[in-house]
């Protein structure tokens, strides 16, 4: 059994430094008004395009959550995939990009949003505070999900739930570490046993770090409804 890590596939032309390296706000151009920090363009993106892609999506999501909390809440609490896509589509503007351009499909924002939301909830819980929004739990029952989750997304969520159930600490370490950082790479390495345990014997799953980070974050943030277990209705008489 094998899990092969692949690079993500998001085309970007912007990036910013890890969250701890810059303040969360910046001065609006030509004024002293503070606004959520936007993604920045590096001078050279050729050195590590894939890592840059992941980092810029993370920073873009962070800015979106800061700027549009109500719209983000509508997205993550949506009861159908269609409503989620519509809400996220409305968030995909250039307001959180300093300059340059990004090209990505709506579903590429799903993971970064849940990653950012989970990080904020974890931070709030560490300070004994409540933080929302509360998203509906994931059901891994295909018959129940139907329109609530894209069918192609369900197997990845199932994999994520398996990893979380085996080693929640490793899953949390991956999601809470800055995206694309050496710290997160180390967390991925430590989670290898849990990854392999969640892959059927003789099966190879091709997932990138971006995809794994995304499904772990969504499972951790939303939680998973347990599958219904069939119970027998027969009775027996004591003899």
Give the topology.
Blueprint: E1 2-6, E2 11-12, E3 25-27, E4 34-36, H1 49-67, H2 69-76, H3 81-91, E5 102-103, H4 110-126, E6 138-139, H5 142-145, H6 154-166, H7 168-176, H8 182-190, H9 192-197, E7 204-208, H10 209-222, E8 224-225
Parallel strand pairs: 1-7, 6-8
Antiparallel strand pairs: 2-5, 3-4
Helix pairs in contact: 1-4, 2-3, 4-10, 6-7, 6-10, 7-8, 7-10
Kindly describe this structure.
With 239 residues, this protein is mainly alpha-helical. Helices cover 46% and strands 10% of the residues. A two-stranded parallel ribbon has the order 1-7. Helix 2 packs antiparallel against helix 3 and helix 7 (168-176) packs across helix 10 (209-222). The longest helix has 19 residues, at 49-67. The model is unreliable at 7-23, 30-34 and 229-239 (pLDDT under 50).
Beta percentage is 5-15%
Radius of gyration over all CA atoms, rounded: 20 Å
Order of helical and strand elements: EEEEHHHEHEHHHHHEHE
Strand order of the largest sheet: 1-7
Kindly state the percentage of residues in helix.
Answer: 40-55%
Unreliable spans: 7-23, 30-34, 229-239
Calculate the terminal CA-CA distance, rounded to whole Å. 49 Å
How would a textbook summarize the main sheet?
2 strands, parallel
Task: Jot down its keywords.
two-stranded antiparallel sheet; two-stranded parallel ribbon; disordered C terminus; globular; 46% helix; mainly alpha; 239 residues
Concise overview:
The protein is mainly α and 239 residues long. 46% of the residues lie in helices and 10% in strands.
